């Protein structure tokens, strides 16, 4: 009897406890399975996946309000990635500063389109409709690609990625000193300055050691021979300069001598010409007189013949005598003028 009564009572108590627990439980606080995100986080180790196929990348920071506003649109765009035949990824610039340097991201959020390793910057709004039209209508073909040294896969941007990664590590270390350990900020700055100086000295020492290891000294006899050759070349060059100067001096002296000789010859020529002119002037009056005398002698028999044949024309021959006398007077005046001119030139 007692055992039969305890069984139903225990069952009732358990049922009442279960109903009380169910009534107290809040259905909103029940754990719901989270949807798996289709956006692939990109890191320095897997970023080379974007070199194949078609991708859309988003660079963001957790503290960026604009980046947070586009998160839902980006998730919706990733869900339709299979329909659009495109992969969707995201990069946290705080956790991956090297990738932000590789793509040279200066503003947030930043979007990039990749097609078979060719990258283009998407500058439109990060809204689902615009992103979908950008892929379906192939608007990315009108955008200039990042080629040459601007390409994220180039050697230049790889070096930029290294610099950004180093700066990110320094920033994390500074936060560790100031936030975790509670060290003042100026102490952290002093530490980094000293570390930079020590690192520079070590790098200089390493370069000196490398140069000493790879430097091959010349043998002694070769160095002496090279010095002798240099000296001989210098002496030969000095001799050539001296010879050139002497040749110049000799040529100048010869030119001066030639010019003096030419001047003297010109003077002699001028003197001979003057003497010849004087002699001609001296001879010209006598020649003129002889010519006049011969003309007068030739004209006398003509006059006699004319006088015999034509006695009436004697009167016309009379005025010829004063003509001859006028010519002799003009010749004498010309001789006097020339003599006076030579006399003036003589002193």
UniProtKB/TrEMBL annotation:
The record, for SUPFAM superfamilies, names: Thioredoxin-like
Topology in the lipid bilayer: Single-pass type I membrane protein
Q: Which GO terms describe its molecular function?
A: disulfide oxidoreductase activity
- Transmembrane portions of the chain: 189-210
- What ranges does the record list as Basic and acidic residues composition bias? 225-236, 290-306, 333-347
Q: Where is the Thioredoxin domain?
A: 52-135
Task: Report residue spans for region: Disordered.
Answer: 225-347
Which keywords does the record carry? Disulfide bond, Electron transport, Endoplasmic reticulum, Membrane, Phosphoprotein, Redox-active center, Signal, Transmembrane, Transmembrane helix, Transport
| Record's compositionally biased regions (Acidic residues) | 242-284, 307-319
**UniProt xrefs under InterPro entries:** Thioredoxin-like_sf, Thioredoxin_CS, Thioredoxin_domain, TMX_domain-containing
GO cellular component terms, alphabetically, are:
endoplasmic reticulum membrane
Per UniProt, subcellular location reads as: Endoplasmic reticulum membrane
Q: Which residues form the signal peptide?
A: 1-22
Q: What is this protein called?
A: Thioredoxin-related transmembrane protein 4
Q: Which organism is it from?
A: Hipposideros armiger
